[in-house]
Sequence to fold (60 residues):
Amino acid sequence: MPQAKALISLTFDDGLDCHLDKAIRLMERFGLKGTFYVPVGDQTFANRYPDWRIAAKAGQ
Fold:
């Protein structure tokens, strides 16, 4: 029997701290990628801007 293949798309909304603290770390651990929609004008995003840059450079 041929092995089944599937694709999924991981998307995250709102740029929450838990996305940086948990989701990205888990995705890195399992070799997964995702799309993050972050509110650029939001203070939460501004506070963690360096962390989002690191995630973007890593290809997350």
